Amino acid sequence: TRAIGNFGGAKRRFQLRADAFGVMLIDDYAHHPTEIKAVLDACRNWKNKRLVVIFQPHRYTRTKILADEFGRCFKGVDKLILTEIYAASEKPIRGVSIKNIYDKAKANGISDVTIVKKDRLADHVMELKKRGDMIIVLGAGDIKKVADDICDSMKKERLLKDTLIEELKRSVDGLVLTKESLRSHTSFRIGGPAAIW
Cα–Cα–Cα angle for 76, 108, 52, nearest 5°? Predict the structure, then answer.
């Protein structure tokens, strides 16, 4: 029982990397359409979350053979961000690129699909993320580095916010509260939490 109690889950299998300011970051090794669909089905257990999916295809041959299935497996995502194929020792195949999956996803009704260079992905996601997002990083290549970078950026953002709140508490004559319910401060006794009060 001690071994089970210490088991933190398999790395890169629906691994929660960060959860801050209402944004969850999930990292998963899924790189086959069936695996991807299973991961996205699991994500739907969280209601009211915008699904932002980052996907790096693994191998040119897999992309060529399974392009149609890739186009269908992302059904229901709110935002799909694709990046270049991880070759995994394969040589490029003429006519096979990330555009194949992009076109198939669009043809299957996913309206918000973009292609972003891998070295720009972390910054791109940090700019577009918002409260209520579930960001899922998928792929078997070097896409884990992107998940690492997003995770690091989210931690720095949290540290910066915590530091700013502490500075505010020192500079204000009075009490500074976080996540203060506005119910007791409004005439109609309604209102959600204020980030800072």
Answer: 35
Of 105, 101, 110, the C-alpha closest to 76 is 110
What's the gap between Cα 166 and its chain centre? 29
List Cα–Cα distances, 117 to 64, 83, 98, 105, 188, in angstroms.
Answer: 20, 6, 11, 18, 49
Q: Are strands 15-20 and 23-28 parallel, antiparallel or unpaired?
A: antiparallel
Q: What are phi and psi of 115, to 5 degrees?
A: -115, 125
* Tokens read off for 124: 């791109």
pTM of the predicted protein model: 0.79
| Nearest-angstrom CA–CA distance, 157 and 164 | 11
Task: Give 51-100 pLDDT, tens digit per residue.
Answer: 999 999 999 999 999 999 999 999 989 999 999 999 999 999 999 999 99
In this prediction, residue 189 carries a pLDDT of 82
